[in-house]
Design goal:
The complex is a heterodimer of chains A (271) and B (393).
Chain A (H helix, E strand, L loop, with lengths): L10 H8 L36 H4 L6 H6 L12 E6 L5 H9 L4 E6 L2 H17 L7 E5 L2 H8 L5 E7 L17 H10 E11 L2 H13 L3 E3 L2 H5 L12 H8 L5 E7 L8
Parallel strand pairs in A: 1-2, 1-4, 2-3, 4-5
Antiparallel strand pairs in A: 5-7, 6-7
Chain B lengths: L1 E3 L5 E6 L2 E6 L4 E2 L4 E2 L4 E6 L5 E6 L3 E6 L5 E6 L4 E6 L6 E5 L2 E6 L5 E6 L4 E5 L11 E5 L6 E9 L2 E8 L3 E6 L4 E7 L12 H26 L17 E6 L5 E6 L5 E7 L4 E8 L7 E6 L5 E8 L6 E10 L5 E3 L7 H11 L4 H8 L5 H25 L1
Helix pairs in contact in B: 1-4
Classes of the chains: A alpha/beta (271), B alpha+beta (393).
The complex binds S-adenosylmethionine (SAM).
């Protein structure tokens, strides 16, 4: 390994200095705010199939040490724990940390495009696991482009919750196709979600809120939850307060637009 | 690029920006210019054989009258169109942009397969009214380790099957309903290291060196992914790509064209057992570089080969037709055959330029689409390495 050079973002040096006993410092992991998910193409970002992911390495507490030792060559066992919740564009991981104790039996994965941000979340989770023995084993983070590779990670109908909190707005009309909610991607989300599974969206950008709701409303495989249903949704209650972005908006007394949808199975088209 | 009229008497060929339709029965080739403003990327007849649909780098899809060659309609898209298809009832034209490399509607018209540059093959439920979108994905067929270049359905007695070809040099057989991989056939391999004198040892050395380079790359990537999650395909070096898959009406026979290879591979597709077996390496006289193939209703195999210069309106084009013998193997159709006229017309139309020009084109890249995809993959890899290096500093 090459010696890290000094510089603004000497993550490795910093990590060595703090000797893994404290939490990672967020400021060291900042990187450019927006990336273009369509131009970010990195061959090694994705497993070929969901079976190629080394889940035991991500969630060691849920697998035996034997299984962990076999790495990704291990054949998947029926009934073995699988990820059910995914936080797409998880940022600094606030939601993962909040959900973990609330859903201790559910494996939750954060997906993040930016290298350094993903690295920060990984370190954060490891630090939490060290400090709270027996906890936070159910959350993990991978660095990947979720707009391209979700089906490489999860099987059909595997997921029950998908979170899209404060996604990048991509304001310009010609950049709308980069948005994380689009007709094409909704087809993918519907494929990954089990019937009854939910999509959570939150944004402080009114135009994006309207746009996401419109795309979901017009999609035949999604149905918007009623206010009552929203009120009864535990995860839904924390969308505005759990994440770093949400807290920032709250501090600035901004408004947040939340919309929750359910994956439905419409009656078959008459043959 | 070639499409075959399902009615069995015409073949359409695109070279560069131009499309020509050759009618074998009337021995007539389309006279009206059928052109795009930039290279044509995909071409297909509708199931009834009356229309032709083309899409290209000019961001246009065009529907043509197959008999007269007259333009029926043009659609403009925001991006370059890379794949086109007709719905099963011929009433809807489907097209896809950029990252999609192939688009095929299954027999029965209720499934749509698309292949993409990331190696994914997606099977969608095609609604009766696809104008409202294609919202439901049936399956993802995952396994290719380089771009997917082509797909074809096989209507087997055991059920619908699907084949896909890729830049990874393989042809794969899938159950399109579940996305499960049934069989993988290596249609090509990485070119052997050129052997100098007393070659064996040198080749072995080279192989060892290559392996060491791979190791090093893997190590580098492992550093960049500290949690130990690592997926690395040695993508810079790809074997010759599978260019085209044609499946016979019996759903049992497939013909494969491989980049740079003079022979077509004929495969037996056993949908019930889930196997692919190579049954013949078919060489057709005068056809040096087959790039596209299609079966007609009678099970004859039409094959187009040749080369086009990038964006050129000319090139070398060869058309051959193979028929099946009583012993089961294919052989070139004799002189008096239905396709002979079209064959002559094709060759006259495209080698009409200067002799020199033709020779120069022969030396050019075998297939534009393919070389483009490869370049892309290479630059992706470069990006990855650059990024990793950055992440390490
Ligand atoms: C504005 S931040 C919000 C982060 C977090 N959800 C929160 O609420 O604090 C959006 C995040 O999505 C990530 N992102 C954008 N496109 C992505 C993609 N295609 N795949 C994965 N992450 C993506 C960005 O890197 C960024 O960290």
């Amino acid at each position: 390994m090459k010696k890290p050079k000094g510089g603004k973002l000497g993550i490795k040096e910093e990590r060595a200095a703090t000797a893994g006993r404290t939490h990672p410092k967020k400021r060291l992991y900042r990187s450019r705010a927006h990336s273009n998910p369509l131009s970010d193409m990195r061959a090694s970002d994705a497993p070929t199939t969901p079976a190629d992911v080394d889940w035991a390495a991500l969630y060691p507490a849920y697998f035996s040490s034997d299984e962990a030792a076999q790495g990704s060559s291990r054949a998947r066992q029926p009934g073995e724990p699988t990820v059910r919740f995914v936080d797409v564009g998880c940022g600094f991981g606030g939601l993962l940390v909040r959900l973990s104790p609330l859903f201790p039996d559910t494996l939750i994965l954060g997906m993040e495009l930016r290298d350094k941000v993903a690295l920060y979340v990984k370190e954060r989770v490891l630090a939490l696991r060290r400090e709270h023995a027996g906890q936070y084993g159910n959350v993990a983070c991978v660095r990947t482009n979720s707009q391209k590779y979700l089906p490489n990670f999860f099987r059909k109908g595997q997921l029950t919750k998908l979170f899209f909190l404060f996604p990048d707005p991509h304001f310009k009309v010609q950049n709308h196709r980069r948005r994380i909610i689009s007709p094409q991607l909704l087809a993918e989300y519907a494929y990954l979600l089990a019937p009854g599974g939910r999509v959570y969206t939150a944004t402080d950008v009114p135009e994006l809120g309207t746009w996401m709701a419109a795309r979901l409303d017009e999609h035949v495989l999604f149905r918007r939850l009623s206010e009552e249903e929203v009120a009864g949704d535990v995860a839904g209650g924390m969308l505005t307060s759990a994440t770093e972005e949400g807290m920032k908006v709250a501090r600035n007394e901004g408004q947040t637009f939340v919309a929750i949808y359910e994956r439905i199975q419409p009656v078959e088209e008459a043959a | 690029m070639e499409a075959h009229n399902p009615a069995g008497h015409a073949v359409a060929v695109a070279l560069g920006c131009c499309i020509q339709v050759f009618d074998c029965r009337s021995q007539h080739s389309s006279e009206a210019p059928m052109e795009h403003a930039a290279a044509v990327r995909d071409l297909t007849f509708d199931p009834a054989g009356r229309m032709l649909l083309s899409g290209g780098d000019d961001k246009c899809a065009r529907a043509w009258d197959a008999a007269t060659g007259s333009l029926l309609h043009t659609w403009e898209a925001p991006k370059k169109i890379s794949a086109v298809a007709f719905s099963g009832d011929s009433r809807v034209a489907l097209f896809a942009d950029n990252t999609i490399t192939a688009l095929v509607v299954a027999p029965g018209g209720r499934r749509l397969a698309s292949a993409d540059r990331d190696g994914k093959v997606r099977v969608s439920v095609l609604p009766r009214t696809p104008l409202l979108g294609v919202p439901e994905i049936q399956s993802f067929c995952l396994g290719h380790t380089a771009f997917a270049s082509c797909v074809a359905f096989a209507d087997c007695p055991a059920g619908l099957r699907m084949l896909s070809g890729s830049g990874d040099g393989t042809v794969r057989l899938w159950d399109p309903e579940s996305g499960s991989l049934l069989a993988t056939l290596a249609a090509s391999a990485l070119p052997a290291v050129p052997a100098a004198d007393g070659a064996g040892a040198a080749a072995a050395d080279q192989a060892a060196e290559d392996a060491a380079v791979d190791e090093e790359l893997l190590e580098k990537a492992a550093v960049a992914a500290p949690s130990g999650h690592l997926w690395l395909y040695p993508r810079e070096e790809l074997p010759p790509a599978v260019l085209c898959i044609a499946v016979a009406p019996d759903g049992r026979t497939a013909a494969i064209a491989v980049e740079g290879q003079p022979e077509l591979l004929v495969l037996d597709v056993d949908g019930a057992a889930g196997t692919l077996t190579l049954t013949q390496e078919l060489e057709l006289p005068g056809l040096t570089r087959p790039t596209a193939a299609a079966f007609d209703r009678d099970g004859r195999l039409w094959v187009v080969g040749g080369v086009a210069a990038e964006g050129a309106r000319a090139g070398v084009l060869q058309l051959r037709v193979a028929v099946r013998g009583s012993h089961g193997g294919f052989f070139a159709e004799g002189a008096g055959g239905l396709a002979a006229a079209a064959q002559a017309a094709v060759e006259a139309a495209y080698t009409g330029g200067s002799e020199e020009g033709a020779v120069a084109h022969t030396g050019a890249a075998p297939l534009q689409l393919n070389s483009q995809l490869k370049k892309r993959v290479f630059s992706e890899e470069l990006t990855a390495v650059r990024k990793r290096t950055r992440a390490e500093q």
